[in-house]
Design a protein that fits this description.
The protein folds into two domains: 182 residues, P-loop containing nucleotide triphosphate hydrolases (Rossmann fold, 3-Layer(aba) Sandwich); 110 residues, Helicase, Ruva Protein, domain 3. The chain has 14 helices and eleven strands. The strands form four sheets. Strands 2-5-8-1-9 form a five-stranded parallel beta sheet. A two-stranded antiparallel ribbon has the order 3-4. The protein has a two-stranded antiparallel sheet with strand order 6-7. Strand 6 and strand 7 form a beta hairpin. The longest helix is centred in the last third of the chain and has 19 residues. The chain is globular and about 70 Å long. The chain binds adenosine-5'-triphosphate and magnesium ion. The site of adenosine-5'-triphosphate has 19 residues, from helix 3, helix 10 and helix 12. The site of magnesium ion has 3 residues, from helix 3.
Amino acid sequence: MINKERFEELFQQQLIKDISQEPIDIVLSGQYGKALELLRDAEATGLFPALVGPPGVGKTILCRYFASLRAKEKKNQSFFWLTMDESIKPSHFIGSFDPAITLKKGFVLEAFNPGPLLSAMLEGGTFLANEINRATEYSQNTLLEPLEEESINIPHLGRIKASKDFFFISAMNPEELSGTHRLSEALKDRIKVWIKLTYPDKTTELEIIRINLPEHFVIEESELELIYSIINETRKNKIDIEVPASIRAGIAMAKLLARRRSLEKEGKIKEKTSTNEYLSEITRHVLLGSMKPKPGTKVENIIESIIHKTLGA
Ligand SMILES: Nc1ncnc2c1ncn2[C@@H]1O[C@H](COP(=O)(O)OP(=O)(O)OP(=O)(O)O)[C@@H](O)[C@H]1O
Ligand SMILES: [Mg+2]
């Protein structure tokens, strides 16, 4: 374990103090520019939006970017989020009493540690309810009052009104994907702008992969195209694949290929391997855990047939 002093020093060094100063490399062509515009419209009209889309299509990065724009404009630095699942309780949104202080002093303000939703409401920041449809209906209900009345009740302390700049965004995977509860009808009725994100068009996805590569990593356009065609195969095969590879898989493949290329350039790899050989190997390693096959289908078989089809190996 690191010692206390070192921990404090590193913590202060790495603390994100101001989200508006955080560099976010985002591609805003295609669906992303449109989605951002809709988020801005929702904000301007006081309507709460939801981003809906499968894993890894850019819901979180778009929210972070939007929150950082708001932070710049409102000179307000707060962006809070909570990723939900069945174990999330209302206290995770609102906050809770510190047991030691409460024991000594009772349910006083001083003993209360505010949660992310309460913090955003007080500071007028952006709150992102990530994977909102994974929370139980009981927890989803915590959001009804903040969305409808812009207020929230804190047990033992009272009810507070949200700052006028408070804004709420939710993000979720489409409901038909397994492992999620449905969004409660009451909550659904309070979210008024539904923004669908899906796998981006080819040009946008290639641009996203490029922007996510470290500067010293270079790969050729033809190699990027091959990576895209491999990833895209997983999205076309709806018979064997339940959840295809996301943008993250393409980024990972590009990084691995670029690293091989740079080692080659530096003379650290002696024998030259063809792009297709490299890519076959990389595809096997990356795709293994990057998609969800339908029950009864072996992921290895799907991968081999994709390699055969796209790389001919
Ligand atoms: N428009 C974009 N510009 C730049 N990078 C992007 C863009 N969209 C997605 N990415 C990259 O793709 C990856 C996945 O994006 P993100 O985490 O935002 O997806 P998500 O939809 O929130 O996924 P999940 O459902 O798993 O939470 C990240 O590495 C992100 O940087
Ligand atoms: Mg996300």
